[in-house]
Amino acid sequence: MAHFPRYQNREVLSLDGVWQSASLGEIPDPDSYAPQSISWEGPFAVPGVFDSLPDYRKQRGLFALRKKIFTGNPSQSALLRFGGLGLWAKLFVDGQALATCRTPYAPWEVEIPASEDSEREIILLIDNRFDAQRVPLFDPYFDFYGYGGIYRSVEWHEVKDVSLGRAVVSTVDLQGKVEIEFRFRGELSEDLTLEVSFDKSDEWVSHRISRKTLHLPLTLTVPNPRLWHPDHPELHQLKVKCKGEILVERFGLRKIEAREEKIFLNGEPIKLLGYNRHEAHPQFGPALPLSQLVQDLQTLRRMGCNFIRGSHYPQDQRFLDLCDEMGFLVWEEALGWQAHSEHFANPDFCALQERQTRAMVRTSINHPSVIMWGFLNECDSHLPESEALIERLAQAARAEDPSRLVTFASNHPFEERNYHHMDVLAINTYPGWYPEAGHKERPLEEIEARIDRLQTHFKKEGIAHKPFLISEIGAGAIYGWRDELEAHWSEQYQANYLDIVTRRVVRDPSICGVALWQFCDGRTYADTRALGRPRAFNNKGSFDEYRRPKLAASVVRQNFQSYPSV
Ligand code: ADA
């Protein structure tokens, strides 16, 4: 489905729809598999995942997908853009192996050579097996199901040798001054004149670009500027004419800062109230239909939320477009889950981490909804071995985009070694759920005690001036399980738990916000690890996997909606 940016006068084919599929089984070396004699088995809807289809449930192995297309101008080269896929993929076009994808969920773009034939055959091998060598970014112990398939939209773009890929718009001031940086595909060999215009205006500003001035931004003032804010998510469009095409970028005028314990949006402090959200549904895995994205966002808005942590991977561009339009603030993060010393010592892992982080930032750069970049959820950031990679990723995110906040979620708050890289102190903590030494008789009493301890610790460390965000906190509840003893796993325990958390967050000015764990239940381990995950789901959703509300939902809604009048 089309999302921003858009390209007028460019041939763009959406490859969403029906592809052919085949299951190839447990082929030992998929990298050297030649897809010549596949017996195609049946239709497959893209976006979609194998694991959610009746024919392939529970299978892990190699799969193949094929699509034949007719292109208008085969003598022109093309770009094939995948919004995200997993876990491993190899692309063949017209029988030629072109590229391999080892960055699940991240945007992936492949250059396609021109052809004499207007019919093109695309074959994608997809592997959903865990494999530390081929897919070091996704380990079997991650607490969410690893699916195989094409998670997001696919587009075929016919492109000239040199074409304008993106125009990055940064807000300079709140009076409408912006800087625009142009990003080209291909090498500029001669000077070019671009024409730039905003919104519906017919006034075009000419801008000359040469190889030398390529990276110099253009500074302009948006006519009739309107600021973007969750209460009034006003959006602007930038149109750029270049070599017969018109690139349309959408952006918002807004500034985000962290200082004096708070997050400021357009110079005003803002409290982040929301949830962690996985892209997940029992029927579709991570390949959600648009209607589900809209439903989820409507539900979150009715809950009084203004904030979503996109746990734990780069987000769907359609979702971010909707967040821009509906006024949600988003933390977008690269794929990562509890990386350990062996990951930090693996140069391939580190390079892929950087690659996906940069790809995420470059792709989502114009979404006003995105206010914060993250990476490496809950890595062993208390170990000295973590420091080089955290520094590398923080630097990469800031180099790609100095305008947003950078952080990562730490679950080692009292031994953390990397606070200096965080613009926001983001802490995942489960007091009153996961037992700790000194566990109390009344676990709910641990919640406020832990928050107090964290705040005292920040003061002691001299970092209390940084905003403190609870990036995860929560308790499990089985939908429909009401228990007179209000025990663990009951809806009442979870409701009481989240009541304490959300009351504290809305009342405490030294907490800049919360992303509750989590919006809805999601499928996870199907192995012995599921012993700690009844039904093989992570049950900490305030909604179940079909988005049916548990008792906690109305408690959270009441408390979030009481802000700021508490
Ligand atoms: C972690 C992790 C989440 C989820 C959660 C839980 O903090 O970041 O992905 O696994 O714990 O439910 O235990």
Which descriptors would you attach to this protein?
566 residues, alpha+beta, 8-stranded parallel beta sheet, 6-stranded antiparallel beta sheet, 8 helices, binds alpha-D-galactopyranuronic acid
Question: Which blocks of ≥5 consecutive residues have pLDDT under 50?
Answer: none
Strand elements, count: 36
Each distinct ligand: alpha-D-galactopyranuronic acid
Percent of residues in β-strands? 25-35%
Find the structural class using helix and strand composition: alpha+beta
Discrete helix count: 8
For the termini, the CA-CA separation is 42 Å
Rough outline: globular
Mean pLDDT: 96
* Main beta-sheet strand count, sense and barrel state: 8 strands, parallel
Please give the share of residues in helix. 10-25%
| Computed CA radius of gyration, to the nearest angstrom | 24 Å
Major sheet: order of its strands?
Answer: 31-30-29-28-27-34-33-32
Describe it.
The protein is an alpha+beta fold and 566 residues long. An 8-stranded parallel beta sheet has the order 31-30-29-28-27-34-33-32. Strands 4-3-6-12-9-10 form a 6-stranded antiparallel beta sheet, with no helix packed on it. A 5-stranded antiparallel beta sheet has the order 1-23-22-17-18, with no helix packed on it. The structure holds alpha-D-galactopyranuronic acid (ADA).
